[in-house]
Amino acid sequence: MKHFLPRSALLLAASVLMSGCATHRDGRVVNTRQPGPAVGTAAGSAAGAVAGNVAGAVVGAGEGFVGASASAFHGERRVVRSWRTETTSDGRVIQVPVEIEVDEHGRPIERATDAGPGQARRGPR
Length: 125
Hints:
The protein has 125 residues and is α+β, with helices and mostly antiparallel strands. It has 2 helices and 2 strands. Helix content is 42%, strand content 16%.
């Protein structure tokens, strides 16, 4: 039992030193010009490409789902203000602000409550 540690250390050092003795510059131990390794390399490359694309699709779908779910809870309001000229009953001309709520792309958000029953809405108010 007293020689266990030196022997295990010697075995570990020998295995580490011998593990890299037959490697080539490209990191392969076999001759890549033979048909077996060439077919194996091609099959491995194809399998890796397919697996990478599947993983990318899953991650992309997950991020899209998270982004769409998060946008429902985003409470930021965007309001565009424009000014409309009106004439009062006593003849004065005044500017009246008109605020239109828009989405993140600047398109007006239509509301069903803006138009009364039987009335068609004629654009932003």
